[in-house]
Design goal:
CATH architecture of the largest domain in chain A: Orthogonal Bundle
Structural class of chain A: mainly alpha
Strand content of chain A: under 5%
Helix content of chain A: 55-70%
Number of domains of chain A: 2
Oligomer: homotrimer
Number of strands of chain A: 0
CATH topology of the largest domain in chain A: Ammonium transporter fold
């Protein structure tokens, strides 16, 4: 019985804290509490820098609620120990206060939506298991989409922070940025994984990755850079590029393909690079697709592209592909045990 | 060979009539001909009260065509006996005359679309079987969506009864209703399961549920009430709430989760209540999602939410979860055998 | 090891040419190089007749890239031999130059997108295998949709040839066409399978089908005619009907249901005819669904309808349904071996 192991771990001081911090870390596939701590510091910095502290407190609330939900439903505790109950919830907690006005009911929505992600993740993983893929951050995407759309139909959770619904129209292409402008866009691409528009937060996130897995940090940086280059060459929207909105999904695709689901190697590195470029097109396409309702794509472009690169079960000659389910059943904790 | 049993049953007087009535009953999961009869009476009352008798005759036509299609394709007759061929068709027959103008070609569309639901149900159940879920009323939703969208592109089936396509925009929140206004909205929530906007029909439907399964009637009533409360608290559209449009999907979620797919108990009751609340947000979100094309959500919010609450295969300590496939392979008939 | 067989075949002169030509033929399920040759001739004729030669060269490029991708990824070579790596790529190569302006980056997009279809096909076939269905041309549809949507968000691949995004609105019904007008619409319905708006191309395509399989040619002709009749009776858009836009998906449904996935017979012929009619409604519906973003439906209506007619695993009394996977694992080559 797994529960007994958990109980023992929980008797240790800070068992729950570690579980929560790992939840934040797992957003970028790091089962590491220090990573999670640095991520949360980055979130708090970015949230207060943009005068919306609710995003940071939402992140904590979503993390706690989704993690507690896993325990309440007696889901397999091995997942919880590794932060796999919390990573969707922390994203819900970042997203809803970003897009919805700060009413009391918004906080109720954060609680319902982040709790929901925990069993939606279990359900979607059940669906995807036969093909050895994982639901990734899609439970967050799906549940948050419903609540963002609902915000357009409910005055108690006003759609204050959302774009106005519109038919796709003309826009300004990125051109002639300074080196510092490019640098900021590159770091913002990493920060936007948690919906934070701050290059400083990008540095915190890179540091958080580095303490857990230096390869992941390198690939996050490379993924954001390659995505930036692709978006500039194909002349996407200047505002979106500068805000890092072409970066966050490719960053996740890069980490997932290069460091989590395929063993490192030259061919898997090339495969991940192609994945990053494809994610940029999926991101551009989905930006257009969601315009008539004015909701955000969230990390859907990352999920879709990563699935498309995992489903063929390609086996590279120079690498042994690890079973895709490794991540879903969780990897060994890196901290404190 | 199942066919021979069927033949024997069909020799009995009224075998086909019973099969059709059960089809109407199965829309709310009741394998009971009296339930179906009361449902049809409610539909006729509501259709004529709103001066659109075509809805009632459409219901009968859709029911007959979809049930006959199951026989024509030699699908397993155990399903047909229990009304499982007909429940999608009866909904098609209510929906098309509600949204499409009364041309001769509209009736052809009812025939094609309701026949289609029978094998789409077989196909979708094949798809979903590995995860122990059922297509519920989604065959109706999917097929009807195609025809409603097509009505915008075909003059022979004019989109007379549909909302104009529009980008999501401002709306009036529900406020200050009288007790009788709330009572009517609560009963309309139940009536709208068959797209009927009449509180009297809601009473007929409750009576129909009660003759088959008193728990189902109680949960339908509770589901509509809890959905009404949620929609009011979150201040959804006044017009939609008054018309019962926030009620019909939660009513179905409540019956499904509390009385069909989980054994009754305190924890499954709580689970169903959470399901009802989540259905309201999914309904609100989908209302926005369909606005640019101006089609109705139909019962999609019920299907999606119920799947999300069944897929995790949660097992409550105090209840034994029945196998989810029970309903799909049909339950024992309650009448006349 | 399959690779060795392939190597032997490739030593034969024209091994690669045959593989590419079969790829063009497989768009209409014909594993026949002469068919592919006639299809390509038809494409070149139509492309130059409408002063957009890029479509024809795009077709060749997409075909070559997607086929080479299969080899590069060491996918099972039996598929490649039969042209199953190339049929999605050739469609990408027709579609992107049709809808996107002729910039250098458009050609880069053709290369990325057509390569992508090869492993997306492998992935989607893995997903669909349990239900004995095949991804058909959906890899082309999915990947091209992303790039068409992206074209609205990227100046380097301008959305020059696409409809403006719009809410569904009024349109003119087809009426009073001359016999030659109907004849042209009927042949264009076949030509539009490759997005070519030319009745002469329709003749080339019929000839291409006839050299491989006379039944397929007859069903393509019948499918286009029945779709035309249905669209006229239901009074769809005059412009769309005249351009053959109600024909191409039903043509593919007809070939698939009547000649590929079910053994020929009276009942499967009726089944295919119903499938053609249903495809027209799905086409009309999807035309409306895509209007707010202004992208094309591509062959999605064919894929969706064909799946809905295969998933129930209906078995007709007078015919033996061949295993649905036959096509996905490939059929015997008809030429030159």
């Amino acid at each position: 019985m797994e529960f007994s192991n958990t109980t023992i771990e929980n008797r240790k001081p800070f068992g729950w804290v570690r579980m929560l911090l790992r939840g934040a870390g797992q957003v970028m596939f790091q089962n590491n509490a220090w990573t999670g701590l640095l991520f949360l510091v980055g979130i708090f910095w970015g949230a207060y820098a943009s005068h919306n502290g609710a995003v940071a407190w939402g992140a904590l609330l979503g993390l706690a609620v989704s993690t507690a939900t896993g325990r309440l439903l007696s889901l397999p505790s091995a997942d919880g120990e590794q932060g796999l109950w919390g990573f969707n919830g922390v994203l819900v907690g970042c997203a809803l206060p970003t897009f919805i006005g700060p009413t009391a009911w918004m906080w109720v929505a954060v609680i319902i939506c982040s709790a929901l992600t925990t069993w939606v993740r279990t359900g979607l993983n059940n669906v995807m298991r036969p093909w050895k893929i994982n639901s990734l951050t899609f439970p967050f995407v799906l549940c948050t989409w419903f609540f963002l759309l609902a915000a357009r139909a409910m005055h108690s959770i006003p759609d204050t922070g959302m774009s106005a619904p519109a038919l796709p129209a003309a826009f300004t292409a990125f051109h002639g940025a300074s080196f510092t402008g490019l640098l900021a866009a590159w770091l913002r691409g990493i920060a936007q994984v948690f919906l934070i528009d701050s290059w400083v937060t990008g540095l915190f996130f890179l540091a958080g990755l580095a303490v857990s897995n230096i390869r992941a940090a390198v690939w996050a940086a490379a993924g954001s850079a390659l995505a930036l280059l692709t978006a500039i060459l194909f002349r996407a929207s200047a505002g979106d590029i500068a805000a890092g909105l072409y970066g966050f999904s490719p960053v996740l695709t890069a980490i997932a393909l290069a460091t989590v689901f395929y063993k490192p190697g030259l061919r898997s590195a090339l495969w991940a690079a192609v994945g990053v470029v494809v994610t940029v097109f999926v991101q551009a396409g989905m930006n257009v697709l969601v315009e008539p309702t004015g909701i955000a794509t969230l990390t859907a472009p990352f999920c879709i592209t990563t699935w498309l690169f995992l489903l063929p079960l390609i086996r590279f000659d120079d690498v042994q592909r690890p079973d895709h389910t490794d991540w879903s059943v969780g990897r060994k904790p890196h901290l404190g045990k």
